[in-house]
Request: fold
Amino acid sequence: MAGLLDVILGYDCNLACDYCTITPEMRPRALTTAQVVACLRRGRALGYDRLSLTGGEPTIRRDLIGLVRAARQLGFDDIKLQSNGLLYAQADNVARLAAAGVTLFHISVHTHEPARYDALVRRAGTYALMRGGLDNVVRSGAPLVVDLILKEDTYRALPEALEWLEARGVQRVDLWFVSLTDGNAANTESMPRMVDVVPYMRDGLARARARGMTIRSLHVPRCLLGDDRQHAFDPGADRVMVVTPEATFELKDSKLTGREHMPCCVSCEHEASCPGVRPDYLARYGDGEFARARGQTPTRAGARRLPLA
Reply:
């Protein structure tokens, strides 16, 4: 049975994004080369034919090229590499990874605004590297998806960010909604209400469609997206196994995916296809906006606004 094997190689990174869920205690944890290869073999034996290598930041691992080659030799048809793209600023790195077997580059751009990017990743001077890496992947002609984060200080610039990406040759973008888990659990002010974000999504999605772009929205339920519900994407709907330095589990059971349905979800036209809402979001805001979207009374209150840690 086909499926995606999603391997978190380790948690170390060359950036320190202000919304990252990785804690300082997690940073040293990583799978060894032998553990990764064993994981790849098990995955193939279980029928997984697609692979995602992520972190942390996988491009800082010295064994990455070898792991990609091993995955190709084991028969993975598609190999995705999730990265912040900084090391792609050296074009040879893109070529070497593609030659080894990477079939899809995912780059986390976070935001297109230079000052905000450097502040968000908390490493001065890195915007130019990200932009250079992005341009090198585009020039290579390799398949590319860009990830943007929807958080309190980025979502208002989403329409302009999508236009900026299209002008650079990017045609596929995934929209991620900030999570209040683990390392970002106390940073409650980073998470906006979805109802405040949706109007900017609506504007951005309209601009993107006019430019022929493919946009997928993770985490925002269809009931809030309205006429833009075709952009909703649930990666956990497919067969996806996640392997981390600590555990192995199905993606649908991850803390970063929607898992909870509310009373207002009953009899919703999207109930069968909607994974629900993430627990961290419901803990922050409750179910009011989802209930009101369906003309119902809220049944679950969110937590009081907490100070930043």
Q: What stands out?
A: Strands lie at 4-8, 50-54, 78-83, 104-110, 144-150, 172-177, 214-217, 240-243, 248-250. The chain has one domain: 4-293. The domain at 4-293 is CATH 3.20.20.70 (TIM Barrel).
